[in-house]
Amino acid sequence: MDLTDIKAAARKAAFIRRKSAFEGVGPGQSAHLSEVLAGYRGVPVAAYMPIRTEINPLPAMAEAAAHGPVGVPVIQGEGLPLEFSRWEPDMAMRSGPFGAQVPEVDDYFDPEIVIVPLVAFDSDGGRLGYGGGFYDRTLERLRARRATLAIGFAFDAQEAESLPLETTDQPLDMIVTESGVRSFRR
User: Is the pTM for the entire model greater than 0.90?
Assistant: First the structure.
C-alpha cells in the first residue's frame, strides 16, 4: 500500500468518527474556540464556513468579528494557496468550490491566525486534511511572511493515534475541540 492509499484509508476512518461526533454533539461546540480567540482580540483571523459534518466555528467567528477582521477561505485554483476574504455575520454570500459559502464580494487580507478544518489530528499537532493541500500551501506561504498561528478545530473523536504525514504537511500550533484546548511547542 502506498502513501496515497494509506492516507485514503485514514481519511475514511476519520470521516466515520467525525460523522458520529457531529450527530452526537449539541450546541456549545465553539465555546473553547471563543475563549482562545478572546485572547487575540483585534488580530486578523481566518476560519471557515462549515460543510457537511465539520465542527461549527460560526459563533466564535461572529464574536471575533466584533473586534477585528475575520476572513473565510476562497479557493483560487488547484495547486494554489487559499486567499482569505473578509467575512461578517449576515453578509451576502455565494457558493464557492466544494459547497462552501464565500463572500459575495471579495476583500482579501492575510490573517495572523488561521482556524483550520481537518479530517483527523494526532497528539503532536499533525493534521490530515481533505487531500488537496490547500491549507498546507497557504500556511507555508503565510509563515514565510510572518509568524502565523494555525489552530485546528475538530471534535475529540477526530484524534488518531498516528497519521501518515509528509514533510510538506504543515503542523498545527494548537488544537481546539468541544472539550478543551491543547498547545504544541514548536
Answer: yes
